[in-house]
Amino acid sequence: MVPDPEGGRSTLEEIFLHASNMDISLTGDASALSTPFSPEYISVDERILQEALVQLTGNPSGGPVSHLGLLFSNVYAPRKGLFGFMFDGDFDVWQQGGQGGSPREGCAVFLDAIGKIRSPGEYLDQVAFTSVHELGHLFNLHHWEPDLCFLNTSNLDASPDLPAYQFLPFQKDWLSQCSSDGAVQPGGSAFENFGIDSAADGGARPGVRGGGKRWHFEISMPVPDFWAFSPVELLISLRLNESAARSAPVPDELHPGYGSFTLWIEEPSGERRRYRPTTRFCGSPPPLVLQPGETITKDLSIFGQAGGYTFRHIGKHRLWATFDVSLGRRLRSNTLEVRVLPFQADTKAAFSEITGQKTLMKQAARAFFYRSARVRPLEMASLKKLAVPHPSGPDAAAAHYALGCSASARVRSRQMRNPQPWEELAKRHLSTAVECESLDPHRRSKAEKRLVTLHGA
User: Fold this and answer.
1) What does the pLDDT read at residue 198?
2) Where does 272-419 have alpha helices with state H?
3) CB neighbour class for 146 (10 Å; exposed up to 12, middle 13-18, buried from 19)
């Protein structure tokens, strides 16, 4: 039951029915998940949740959906303090037309993360608030901070005030159009695409290019020329310059899943669009504090996004990012030029080899993208085969790194009677990845840190 500002309580179904002027009728049904999440999982990652969502909803890929998924789990492994997030599609290169699931068809709420922050008396109300908040995103409602409402971002330091347990008039008006507007209907348009050319400005809102004198904001790609199916990574770096007089707090949000960070892509035709993440995070993690001269670097599996492969046209693309580093201060990165290569070769033998690589990379695509504790046997076999033809090449390095990350994630996230085989697998592949000269310094550093953790286990 969800509190309301008048002191009463309502069900989720009642809240959306009344807020939409009787246009949204939800009916709870848990029968689709006949088996709950395995208790062996200490924490879950996105791929585990994406597959649970498919099992729960049973929706066909693409188009408006008839079932919405509300998943309750314990802790999200990549960001353990996260209260919840919304799924805005799946990365799946096998779906017809590259649909990769439907936009806005499900969300997840993390109960242990909430329980760690909230007192027993606040816990159930915070779970209820987060559930309505995430379901609101499924109807394309975005965060709203000026007034108290369900779409406020939850404060880690305090539970939502009672007046926040409401939808505002303009939000109610939006919800009331669900049956007639694809921008509102779950499974319709992508999140925050309201039926207009929302990418028209191309991130042109004023921003301090490169970070100005205080900050250095940069994106880079170790492999700037690649095939569309190559598992390439984007590195995102933010440095507080040495000239800064003092340390500075920074939102730990260098990821397209947060509203403060946007990645822009300009196609060879000149069309501009936003990179579309598979999840939209809610709640701000504790800020990082950078000292003068200190840099934080994050990596993003840029080759994939919600709906399938990110790059679908051959030729030169331009990428840049914007980041709201503090209230009223937006940084704009450098502009990075990359080239998507044509699928061709000089000889029949070379073309046959490339075709084989493409097949293996497609089979292993989800393993490369999600770096999950869950990897299918075919994916593991494909990753191992990719490492054979050119042991020191970038494909082999990426394959060993993906295998090592997956195995180490499995050790961290699951309670196993005998974790040793997975520990040894992780050590072997991470060590091999580190030895590959083609592995970029950032991933090499991450692999070395994982190895230290594994040796200390």
Assistant:
1) 47
2) 348-363, 365-370, 377-386, 394-413
3) exposed
- Whether the CB-CB separation of 186 and 86 falls below 8 Å is answered with no
What pLDDT shows up at residue 134? 97
What is the per-residue DSSP string for 249-280? EE-S--STTSTTEEEEEE-TTS-EEE---SEE
Under a CB-based contact definition with an 8 Å cutoff, are residues 411 and 425 in contact?
A: no
Distance separating alpha carbons of residues 168 and 330, to the nearest angstrom: 28
**pLDDT score of 278:** 93
Q: Which residues of 345-362 are buried (b: 16+ CB within 10 A; e: fewer)?
A: eeeeeeeeeeeebeebbe
- Written as one letter, the residue type at 398 is A
Mean pLDDT, the chain cut into blocks of 10 residues (457 residues total): 87 95 89 58 87 85 81 90 92 59 90 94 95 96 94 89 95 96 89 58 51 88 92 95 93 94 96 94 88 95 93 96 92 97 87 88 92 88 85 84 91 77 92 90 92 82
Task: Look at residues 295, 301, 294 and name the one whose alpha carbon lies nearest to residue 257.
Answer: 301
The rounded distance, in Å, linking the Cα atoms of 178 and 9 is 24
| DSSP character string of 2-29 | EE-TTS-EE-HHHHHHHHTTT-------
Residue whose tokens read 């299918």? 376
Closest C-alpha to 117, from 160, 148, 146, 77: 160
Cβ-based neighbours of 99, under 8 Å, separated by 6 or more: 61, 62, 89, 92, 307, 308
Nearest by Cα to 52 from 122, 109, 95: 109
